[in-house]
Amino acid sequence: MQSTKMRRKVAPVVNDGDSSDKLDQLLLSSAICNGEDLGPFVRKAFASGKPETVLHHLRHFSKSKESEIEEVCKAHYQDFIMAVDDLRSLLSDVDSLKSSLSHSNVLLQSVAGPLLASLDGFVEARNVSQNVGLALESIQTCVRLVELCSRSNFHLSGNNFYMALKCVDAIEREFLEKTPSSTIRKMLEKQIPAIRSYIERRISKEFGDWLVEIRIVSRNLGQLAIGQASAARQREEELRIKQRQAEEQSRLSLRDCVYALEEEDDDDDGGGRVGDEGKDKYSNSGSSMFGFDLTALYRAYHIHQTLGFEDRFKKYYFENRKLQLTSDFQVSSMTPFLESHQTFFAQIAGFFIVEDRILRTGGGLISKIEVENLWETAVSKMCSVLEDQFSRMQTANHLLLIKDYVSLLGVTLRRYGYPVDALLDVLSKHRDKYHELLLSDCRKLIGEALAADKFEQMLMKKEYEYSMNVLSFQLQTSDITPAFPYIAPFSSTVPDCCRIVRSFIEDSVSFMSYGGQLDFYDVVKKYLDRLLNEVLDGALLKLINSSVHGVSQGMQVAANMAVLERACDFFFLHAAQLSGIPLRMAERGRRQFPLKIARDAAEEMLSGLLKAKVDGFMTLTENVNWMADEPPQNGNEYVNEVIIYLETLVSTAQQILPVQVLNRVLQDVLSHISETIVGLLLADSVKRFNVNAVMGIDGDIRLLESFADNQVHLFSDADANQLKSALAESRQLINLLLSNHPESFLNPVIRERSYNTLDYRKVVTISEKLRDPSDRLFGSFGGRGLKQNPKKKSLDALIKRLKDVS
User: How many domains does the chain divide into?
Assistant: First the structure.
């Protein structure tokens, strides 16, 4: 290699004179020295038609190299001779080594023969061992495979499908490709899909059974949940009643209050949610006590997840539940909605309680959006059903029962986060219809109660009767419990009507409560006003105008009206209490007596009956001697009869009639008597009368005024004076006729002070009847030739002046 390298570094010497040949020779020499391809040079030579030149250059190059080789050989000849000598010396050593190797080979052959035979036996044994090991490994694989198959069969027989699927997955993953037996492999390839298909069918059947069962469970669950809401509402009502009682005691300043601690059972708290005991992702036992078991559902969902069919199962579940909900919306036309509404709403409530539980614990089985869509569909359907059913109902109690249950449904599902405003809006929209039906029912009941009234004071033999008919409506006039038997100043129609009105208030508040409107007192008050003003007042007015005959019945009706006036205060306070309004606000907004028309009619009717009775006595005025020689000593006969009757009337009426009513009635009667007396003097039947007759009438009026003064033990002084003022017209007329200066009537000041009730036309007519010269009208006059009495002259002047005015 060193000589080769050296040769590559030697540049050939060219002594040719021709420069191109030298260049070609130099390039060819360089290419040969560098071991390059000479093909281009050869092609070039043949292309130029000068191959001899290339041969010439090659010969020249070979000659130049022969001399170089010769010089190199000369340089290494001595070393070659020495190497040849060394090789010759080694020949003897090689021969001896050859003989030694031959001898060693013979020895080795003799020794290695048995060893090779043993080695062949060892190799054969090792091959057998390897085959046995492979067989054992295959057997172990088969044993493990059989164990997994057996375990899978065991889980299948025990309906433990999840573990069976795990075993099948392990067989498919670990043994299907490694199974040495093609028969077993084919069996596995056939049975694994069959097992999965079998599990899917079984779990689908269980899920189908669960879908059937959950409908019954949902109905029971909804009824239970709504029942818990109803119990919670009942406890709230009881607490509210206790609070009202405490407020009433505080208002009445009762200090002897009894305080007690009340223990509440936390386990029975209606504020919880049915079936919230389990909070795990796949809780199976949280609601077993309610029959609310989701094991089958979650098992089916989990199995389908394991099979890789999660999305398909979600869709299948949602579609089936949606169909169930649609089926729940069906309202039977064969059963009245009043009988089926609880089942209808409980079924829907239970459905969404179950869905809420699945949403929270189902691991994504159903989404919140899907539940909200189902709820919107349900709300829309329930609203349409309520609209349709409410439009058909003609009984207020039926509508109230359904409203209460729907409000309980709203309370129940609001706890689970479902919006129920649309349902409450439907209830509010039918508020007017409900109250119209309620007013119609109360009109019928009040009519029946009034028709059954016997116009007799109510007899109460026991304290509970007094509490039920008097205290419960705050009709008592004293806090002292009376002795029994107790005769009330009112008839049985008063507590009957009070019970009807109280029931109306409670039903109205019940309808308005829990309907989404917190402050509904004004609404209740509006309908209560209608009940009192339109229904009760109208019924009483009809009773007064058609069914009252006789003074005793009229007096009883008037007494009833006075008691009902106190009852009306109770009605508005009771409505305020039930509506949660402070009593002071209700008292501050109190209006006038709503039964004023019936009260006034009752008093007018009683006054009319009394006037008719008095008119019977006033017919005795026929016996009055209008031209008496002297005035009667003890009044005329008619006035004595009237006073006896009035005294008897007062002694009876003061037992049942309030003082104010009695005062107004007596005023009206005395005013009527006064008008009758004036009318008697105006009547054509009385052609003339003398001063003695006028003095007799004056005595009659004094007796009536004395009767009014004697009532001071019943009335105040002001009321007694009002009674006397009822006789003002007759008194002023008699005073004018007996006056020494009757012309003073023409003085406006005196007339306003002393004769303000007199009509000047009546004065003219009556005064003319005293103008009889032959009867000595104004006292003891002399004969015709005597000077005219100044009093008569004044009266004649008055008559003339009044006629001029007229």
Answer: 4
Answer for the pair 572, 590: CB distance below 8 angstroms, yes or no.
Answer: yes
Residue 486's DSSP bridge partners are 460
Phi-psi label, residue 582: left if phi above 0, alpha if psi -120 to 50, beta otherwise: beta
pLDDT in tens, 436-476: 888 888 989 988 888 888 888 888 888 888 888 888 888 88
The domain boundary, picked from 553, 571, 594, lies at 594
For helices 19-33 and 39-48, angle between their N-to-C axes, nearest 10 degrees: 150
User: Is the peptide bond preceding residue 336 cis, with omega within 30 degrees of 0?
Assistant: no
Residue whose entry in the numeric block shows the structure tokens 């009556």: 766
pLDDT interval class at 590 (50, 70, 90): low
Q: How many CB atoms lie within 10 A of CB 577?
A: 22
Q: In which band, very low, low, confident or very high, does the pLDDT at 9 lie, cut at 50, 70 and 90?
A: very low
What distance in Å separates the CA atoms of residue 95 and residue 552, rounded to the nearest whole number? 175
Residues 414 and 447 in one domain: no
Q: Which of 126, 154, 180 is the last residue of a domain?
A: 180
Flag whether the pTM goes above 0.85: no
Residue 589 and residue 653 in contact, taking contact as beta carbons nearer than 8 Å: no
Question: Torsions phi, psi of 626, nearest 5?
Answer: -80, -10
Q: Which residue has the tokens 């032959």?
A: 774
Range in 10-14, 75-79, 168-172, 210-214 with the lowest mean pLDDT: 10-14
DSSP notation for 19-66: HHHHHHHHHHHHHHHTT---HHHHHHHHHHT-HHHHHHHHHHHHHHHH
Domain that holds residue 128: 50-180
In one-letter notation, the amino acid at residue 71 is E
Structure tokens at 803: 């006629």
